[in-house]
């Protein structure tokens, strides 16, 4: 291919199509995502909500960039659905001289670090006010092939990209299948189908009797619970298992509260909020702490090792963490519920909560408008299957063995996924590396 040198100002012609803003008309406002994530609708507003008397109208197919964030990949092509949208002076939009530069070729070119570097070199200012400088930007030079060769490059890139997208779709399908398999493993475990029963095991009925005796011994008052009806039982369980309500096998079910005045400390006891609760465990990123005095004031919601913490409100409802044994003490917000089983294998109970049948219970038992929540009185009455204690241990071993296999499969797929992403970057580099080499030689 023949390559030649051009300046940015040779093929990008800035447009300022100023239009008056009319109060009772509706306008589309534009946002440009960082790191090549495209041009999108920011919001629709009435003219009366816009402070400027005039704004610039954009057209589909124009190139647009943020004068503030162009160096961070904030640029792209105006999509059809934003034709006629309006922008402020901070957003520069351009017509592309198609005799010099193909629209599609430029779209590919501008998605590379090569064009990021051009914007970086053309930006200047103090730390908090770095902006694209127009004279510098238009003067930046780059090497491009002749227009007919640009079309050939684009066709090759599109063909390869379509193949890579097909691979990406396959990877997403495989990841979905693995998640479905994980859910099936947990469901089979909940139904007593994952390990064989041992007739020598103490029955779950005897375990339930011991739990009741333990509650009496600890002075925990039994709440009157309705008998379990046939229509409440979602599936059959082995003869050695037993159905019961959660309140029968726990010493505590209850959510926390937010300290008065959001009285957090820099150190002290960890205060777990819904964003700290994940199925894989407790996440300490953005963790808050409460003081010794606050912990004593909130003694009714102290978190101990082996507690089950369940998110009961909002978008993360149903996420559930098992508190590790090395935690001394903590506390929880009102969006998190403490469940403290008695005598049960806590790992088994945690996996039971994560199973599809239990999660379905959660989302069919919520209440409240807007931010839905799971009421305590509903959770207490949930019907759960309890296997013999020894079988609980065998179930956990089998779950962990099977989930480890699916984890390895997932890791393999994710590795391939990342390799595909890197392949596209390599192909883009290869498509434009000639211009880099020529640039260096010159």
Task: Provide key terms for this protein.
442 residues, alpha+beta, four-stranded antiparallel sheet
Give a verbal description of the structure.
The protein is an alpha+beta fold and 442 residues long. The chain has 3 domains: 3-145, DNA methylase specificity domains (Adenine-n6-DNA-methyltransferase TaqI, Chain A, domain 2); 147-183 and 393-442; 202-387, DNA methylase specificity domains (Adenine-n6-DNA-methyltransferase TaqI, Chain A, domain 2, Alpha-Beta Complex), CATH 3.90.220. It contains 11 helices and 25 strands. The protein has helices at residues 8-11, 103-109, 113-121, 134-139, 147-190, 204-217, 292-297, 346-354, 356-363, 376-380, 389-441; strands at 3-7, 12-15, 18-20, 26-32, 39-46, 54-57, 63-66, 75-77, 86-87, 91-96, 123-124, 131-132, 141-145, 242-245, 250-255, 269-272, 277-278, 281-282, 288-290, 302-303, 308-311, 320-322, 330-332, 336-341, 383-386. The strands form 9 sheets. It has a 4-stranded antiparallel sheet. Strands 15-24-21-22 form a 4-stranded antiparallel sheet. Helix 5 (147-190) packs antiparallel against helix 11. The longest helix is centred in the C-terminal third of the chain and has 53 residues, at 389-441. The chain is elongated and about 85 Å long. The relative contact order is 0.11.
